[in-house]
């Protein structure tokens, strides 16, 4: 069952609707994003992306710098609105992350909505209840303690202090940081800070987790430990995770499927084996042979 589906999504930066149309017409003729930029002055974020991400899937988005990875993931929580296209999200798929009961996500009914049509209040609710994000540079609030950071999303939802701190402690325990609940972010190493970032995203209890280069700033050993921890948690949580990386080894290790972007276009989606044995073009083939 699809959880998220991008339909013909294009994003042309700093262009009005007419300007975006003219850039997209050039892209449709096969012009690449560099040529479009030099001819029109507009930056191509994404062009005509069609991508379905399944419920409970850990889906990696891979590509070189500037290929459109951050642009894509930020459409899913509407930090960015597209120049054209639709974004379907099945909001009937519940967050059921109660580890103790080991419940897998189940859709009560299939009811995809185009999130571009959400009004302000519904959008706010969607952002809080359906998606959470783990950032590359952790994004913790420096004057809040670890537990306050983890409980922050629940505070925004007006949950009582004792209740939200209980939930925060549960997730701090899951990421192995319970003893640090009263520390401040600048007292922690990068790896610890990102564990707090992960605990905060999990505490929000949303069915969709968005991770934009979440492990890229970490040392190789710590990075590998966090990858293992994510896989171990995901085996029990079954969330829908969109995981961005520019590292093919990381994509192959964590991703059930991988989507490869180049110049704002989606080149191929498949398992690591699909990409290795049937690469759609040289760009994909080079990634797969570069894999150690
Ligand atoms: N706010 C913006 N204004 C104008 N152009 C932008 C903006 N954000 C991104 N772009 C352009 O859109 C394209 C895709 O950028 P994006 O940040 O999505 O790439 P990325 O794959 O995440 O790269 P990185 O690996 O460096 O994070 C790039 O050409 C970039 O210059
Ligand atoms: Mg990026």
Largest sheet: 6 strands, mixed
What is the alpha-carbon Rg in Å?
Answer: 19 Å
* Structural class based on helices, strands and sheet pairing: alpha/beta
Got a strand count? 10
Identify the CATH class: Alpha Beta
Q: Estimate nothing, just give the exact number of structural domains.
A: 1
Shape: globular
Strand ordering within the main sheet: 6-7-8-3-9-10
Q: What low-confidence regions span 5 or more consecutive residues with pLDDT below 50?
A: 97-108
Bound small molecules, which ones?
adenosine-5'-triphosphate, magnesium ion
**Average pLDDT, to the nearest integer?**
92
Strand content: 15-25%
Question: What's the CATH topology name?
Answer: Rossmann fold
N- and C-termini, Cα separation: 33 Å
* String of helices and strands: EHHEEHEEHEHHHHEHEHEEHH
What's the CATH superfamily, by name?
A: P-loop containing nucleotide triphosphate hydrolases
CATH architecture: 3-Layer(aba) Sandwich
Oligomer: single chain
Structure annotation, total helices: 12
Notes on the structure:
The chain is α/β, with parallel strands linked by helices and 292 residues long. The protein has one domain: Rossmann fold. Helix content is 40%, strand content 23%. It has twelve helices and ten strands. It has helices at 17-28, 33-40, 69-76, 120-130, 146-150, 152-156, 161-174, 190-203, 220-237, 248-254, 272-277, 282-290; strands at 2-13, 43-54, 58-62, 84-90, 112-114, 131-134, 208-212, 240-245, 257-262, 265-270. The strands form two sheets. It has a six-stranded mixed β-sheet, with helices on both faces. Strands 2-1-4-5 form a four-stranded antiparallel β-sheet, with helices on both faces. Helix 7 packs across helix 8 (190-203). Mean pLDDT is 92; it is low at 97-108. The chain binds adenosine-5'-triphosphate and magnesium ion. Magnesium ion binds at residues 69-70.
């Amino acid at each position: 069952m699809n959880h998220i589906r991008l339909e013909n999504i294009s994003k042309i930066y700093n262009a009005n609707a007419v300007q975006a149309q003219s850039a997209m017409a050039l892209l449709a003729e096969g012009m690449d994003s560099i040529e479009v930029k030099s001819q029109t002055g507009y930056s191509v974020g994404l062009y005509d992306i069609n991508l379905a991400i399944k419920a409970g899937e850990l889906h990696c988005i891979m590509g070189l710098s500037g290929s459109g990875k951050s642009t894509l993931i930020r459409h899913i929580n509407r930090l960015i609105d597209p120049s054209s296209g639709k974004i379907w999200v099945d909001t009937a798929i519940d967050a059921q992350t109660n580890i103790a009961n080991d419940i897998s996500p189940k859709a009560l009914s299939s009811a995809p909505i185009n999130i571009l049509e959400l009004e302000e209040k519904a959008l706010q609710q969607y952002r809080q209840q359906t998606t959470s994000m783990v950032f590359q540079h952790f994004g913790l609030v420096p004057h809040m303690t670890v537990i306050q950071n983890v409980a922050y999303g629940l505070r925004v939802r007006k949950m009582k202090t004792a209740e939200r701190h209980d939930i925060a402690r549960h997730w701090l325990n899951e990421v192995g940081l319970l003893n640090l609940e009263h520390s401040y972010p600048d007292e922690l190493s990068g790896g610890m800070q990102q564990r707090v970032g992960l605990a905060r995203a999990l505490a929000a209890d949303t069915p969709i987790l968005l991770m934009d280069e979440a492990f890229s700033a970490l040392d190789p050993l710590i990075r590998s430990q966090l990858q293992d921890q994510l896989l171990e948690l995901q085996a029990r949580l079954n969330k829908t995770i969109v995981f961005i990386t520019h590292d093919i080894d990381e994509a192959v290790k964590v991703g059930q499927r991988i989507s490869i972007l180049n110049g704002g276009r989606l080149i191929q989606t498949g398992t690591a084996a699909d990409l290795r044995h049937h690469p759609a073009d040289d760009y994909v083939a080079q990634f797969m042979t570069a894999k150690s």
